[in-house]
Design brief:
By secondary structure, the chain is α+β, with helices and mostly antiparallel strands. The chain has 2 helices and 3 strands, in the order E-H-E-E-H. The protein has a single domain (5-79), classed as Alpha-Beta Plaits (2-Layer Sandwich). A 3-stranded antiparallel sheet has the order 1-3-2. It is globular and about 45 Å long.
Length: 80
């Protein structure tokens, strides 16, 4: 029997970059995770929370999210 798994990813930075990262993962599977962009002092936090029925499903979802975030961040970095 698979156990319930919960995981969080929190990114902290500037609002414009946070919005771009949010846009990069929003089209993904919205039923698999919840995401919000919230103010944190002078910066912002992109908070991603997911829950699933097992480690394998969680790992797949986290891997997908991190791949999307890495690609978006790489694109932002190349634009200067």
């Amino acid at each position: 029997m698979a156990a319930a798994v919960r995981a969080s990813i929190i990114w902290r930075g500037e609002l414009d970059r946070g919005r771009a990262l949010l846009a990069a993962i929003s089209p993904d599977d919205p039923d698999d995770f919840h995401v919000e962009l919230v103010e944190d002092g002078e910066l912002y936090q992109l908070r991603i929370a997911l829950s699933s029925k097992g480690l394998s499903q969680s790992r797949t979802t986290v891997d997908d999210i991190l791949a999307c975030l890495a690609a978006a961040e790489s694109g932002l970095d190349s634009m200067g």
